[in-house]
Amino acid sequence: MGEKAEAETEEHVNWAKEKAKEGYESAKNKAGETLEKAKESVASNLESAKETAKEKTKEIKENIAGKKRDEEL
Questions:
Q1: Where are the annotated segments for Disordered (predicted)?
Q2: Could you give the CA distance from residue 47 to residue 42 in angstroms, rounded to a whole number?
Q3: What are phi and psi for residue 45, nearest 5 degrees?
Q4: Which pLDDT tens digit goes with each residue over 22-65?
């Protein structure tokens, strides 16, 4: 009877190890996906900020150039 209990215990331990490994892999994959989404979001926000800055710089330059022309007149 002791060997049977030992075998069952070992089977349960192996099952638990496998479930833990699956859980770890699942969590690792989910974390990787979340990280990739965050990187994409940051990159998108950066590009948007660059474009906005570029547009604002252009507007400022145009306004300054326009004021100089008005002053000359």
A1: 1-73
A2: 9
A3: -65, -35
A4: 999 999 999 999 999 999 999 999 999 999 999 999 999 888 87
How far is 15 from 17, CA to CA, in rounded Å?
Answer: 5
Could you list the residue range(s) of the whole structural domain that residue 41 is in?
A: 1-72
**How many structural domains comprise the chain?**
1
Distance of alpha carbon 46 from alpha carbon 69, whole angstroms: 35
- pLDDT of residue 72 exceeding 60, the answer is no
Q: Is the dihedral of CA 36, 40, 43, 46 positive or negative?
A: negative
pTM over 0.85: no
Take residue 47 and report the two structure tokens written for it: 């590009």
* pLDDT recorded at residue 64: 87
